[in-house]
Design goal:
256 residues, alpha/beta, elongated, disordered N terminus
């Protein structure tokens, strides 16, 4: 499969490449440069004025959101941080139990509450615990589905308000977990979460097949958001920081 076949927004990419001066570059190099430009245009550093850093992880159920929280805690701990996981998806007992397993695997603390508890109250408790114990960052697993979409978005807004009240500038990071296999539906989901939750970064999961690789370009181009991590498998080590160079080079290999 050619590189254009792997990229969802191939026509836009072709047009942009045609508009570029050749300057002696091959077509392959021109395409690579254009893809780099797409990602560079949306790259935004995270500014944390006051700690602990608070990261909300949002997304619909089934995208790998809860497991992503556990894997992210593992990544951050290996980088020398002392993360704390907050189980704010109190509407699904299974999600809390799953998160407990992942927290144990990652060797990090977990703040949880009884089923049905107010998610914003659990976030408050987690931030208080993080401050007291020196845990940083606070990773908050949020609900992916409530009774209605409106309820879900209102709940996320409430969590954001509580976080900002407790830590200046929080939530500092709002990561939307998207399944690389869902295509345009994922972009539609993302727009809803962007308006309600203030999403400023993407975690792309299930990015382990050749045909799915190009979706990262379309997401960055359409949503104007950076991709911060990619999930490439089910193991605890299978969440990795997104590397533009590795991604670009991988697109031109026979197997992504």
């Amino acid at each position: 499969m050619g590189v254009f076949g792997r990229i969802r927004d191939g026509l836009s990419l072709i047009a942009a490449v045609k508009a570029r001066p050749r300057d002696g570059l091959s077509l392959r190099d021109l395409v690579k440069e254009e893809i780099r430009t797409v990602f560079a245009a949306v790259d935004r550093p995270i500014v944390v004025v006051q700690h602990p850093k608070v990261t909300l992880v949002v997304g619909v159920n089934g995208t790998g959101k809860t497991t992503t929280v556990g894997k992210l805690a593992h990544v951050l701990k290996n980088d020398g941080h002392a993360p704390l996981i907050c189980a704010a998806d109190t509407f699904r007992a299974a999600a809390v139990e799953q998160l407990d397993v992942w927290a144990t695997r990652a060797g990090v603390d977990l703040v949880r509450a009884r089923e049905g508890a107010d998610p914003a109250a659990v976030v408050f408790d987690a931030i208080s615990s993080g401050k007291a114990k020196g845990r940083d960052p606070i990773l908050v697993d949020t609900a992916g589905r409530l009774h209605t979409r409106v309820n879900l978005m209102q709940e996320l807004d409430k969590i954001r308000r509580i976080a900002s009240r407790e830590v200046a500038g929080a939530p500092h990071d709002v990561l939307l977990v998207l399944d690389a296999t869902v295509g345009q539906n994922g972009v539609t989901q993302a727009r809803e979460f962007m308006s309600a939750a203030g999403v400023n970064g993407i975690v792309l999961t299930k990015l382990d097949g050749t045909a799915k690789g190009g979706v990262a370009v379309a997401i960055a181009h359409d949503l104007k958001l950076p991709i911060r991590y990619v999930g490439v498998g089910e193991g605890i080590d299978d969440l990795v920081p997104f590397s533009v160079e590795e991604y670009v080079n991988g697109l031109f290999e026979d197997k992504w």
